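Possible regression after last week's pipeline update?

I re-ran a chain I had predicted before the update to compare outputs. Posting the input and the new output here so someone can diff against the archived version. Not blocking, just want to make sure nothing changed silently.
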Amino acid sequence: MKKDKEKKKKRGKHPEPQDSAGKIQIGIAAGEPEADPLQYALTAVGGKWKLRILWALRGGASLRYGEIKQQIPAITDMMLSQSLRELTASELIARQQFQQIPPKVEYRITPAGAELIPAVELLCAWALKQIKGDK
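New output (post-update):
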């Protein structure tokens, strides 16, 4: 029984340090005067789903939760919700909630998020080259 509790404690998510506005603060919590750029980028868009969500929003149009989920069918609801929250906190996407019944929420890419799209395109081009064997 004691081991189960220890395992659950180890699995707990440790959220990234954030300022009062909810923006992720990298390096500041560790006492570093400036954030490490690579660490900041990996925290902002790292993981399996964040780049895919940005890719789904790349057109600039606002999409609802279900529309994003349709473009990324393998993602679970929990991971989509969590990733959307983190991308919103990083200010790479914007969330707009409409006061109506039933509730309506839309997400759109911000200018900061749109700046990442050319880098994602380059990453995709590199991957295609590796897959085809044109190394």
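Follow-up from reviewer: compared with the archived run. The first strand starts at residue 63 and ends at 64. Marking as no regression found.
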